[in-house]
Amino acid sequence: DAAELGQYRHYMQKEIFEQPTALASTLARALELGCVPATFGPTAEAVFQAAPAVRIVACGSSYHAGLVARYWIEEWTGLPVSVEIASEYRYRSSVEQDGTLVVAISQSGETADLLAAARSARERGKVQLLALCNVPHSTLTREADLLFLTQAGLEIGVASTKAFTTQLAALFVLGVALAGARQSLPAPRLAELIDWLPRLPALARDVLALEPQLEAWAHELSHDHNALFLGRHTLFPIALEGALKLKEIAYIHAEGYAGGELKHGPLALVDETMPVIVCAGADAVPDKLASNLREVMARGGRVYLLAEPGCEALADGTHRTVLLPQAAGPLAALTMTLPLQLLAYHTACRKGTDVDKPRNLAKSVTVE
Ligand code: G6P
């Protein structure tokens, strides 16, 4: 084990630092092909052109990846996208229009609720099932019409890290491929989106260099019993994911919220004992987030701000600020995830929890 871990203390830490490579591997074939629909299979182009809607089903972190994809796909294609928790979808009634693209996202491809949701979708209409999965030959991949295999490699830590960000990369490719098939974006805009992808591994590497600063935040957070995570636009699901990581491995009660929802409840919890981790992206309505921040600070909340360049103005009056090295445009959801993983990881280390095998949780939930 020690040899496999190399310089790292835990698999989770190793897997966090494998992300630049995992992202490059995941994107390699798509970029080679030019992010065309055929990346997803020979019939993908016709399926993408005909789809009247996109329905995404997933569980856990994979569900959060789906929530991010909704922002991308709706903006780039104009298609209606719904994102569903698989365990809810399977037990409710829904009507699926013929040709609906059902995207099942799963690291393992074996999650019982996810498989059941995918099968229910098939029973409800003549849908096309796209599997986005990290495990080749898993049950999900065998049942799908279209497939994208993420190349995260084996993920041992129960809390998903590289599997999650490679799912986001694959979903970005899906958004671009759908827009290409449907000609819903002007060619230069499509090319501009694709151009972001080769830059992703280096962007990720630069963000991971912030580890010492996140470790310092973690020392403070390890004394807290609650935490709030805020974000807007594609960074709202990332706030959910950041909160999930902290709960899972550091056993700190944490909630992710959309900035605009603060005044509808969580603001009542804010005082000097409440750390509020805020994700600010240059393209994620930063001016609106700024007013959410002021609401928190006016009530004595301790703001820990993660900000892209362009959002420096939000740092005024915060408790701590870490500036990301570069703005990542439409990829901000990916780059912003990394500091949140590091924060949860170091908080858990500080508390001495079993980081790679958190209590009561399993890597793959193959029973209902
Ligand atoms: C478990 C894992 C999570 C994962 C979820 C969904 O809860 O601990 O990390 O996100 O299952 O798993 P899947 O393999 O379907 O993505």
Automatic annotation (TrEMBL):
Keyword Transferase: yes
Active site: residue positions: 363
Keywords: Aminotransferase, Cytoplasm, Glutamine amidotransferase, Repeat, Transferase
Any one GO BP annotation for this protein: carbohydrate metabolic process
Primary location recorded for the protein, binned into one broad class: cytoplasm
Reactions the enzyme catalyzes: D-fructose 6-phosphate + L-glutamine = D-glucosamine 6-phosphate + L-glutamate
Record-level Gene Ontology MF annotations: carbohydrate derivative binding; glutamine-fructose-6-phosphate transaminase (isomerizing) activity
Subunit architecture: Homodimer.
Protein's UniProt name: Glutamine--fructose-6-phosphate aminotransferase [isomerizing]
Residues represented out of the complete protein: 241 to 608 of 608
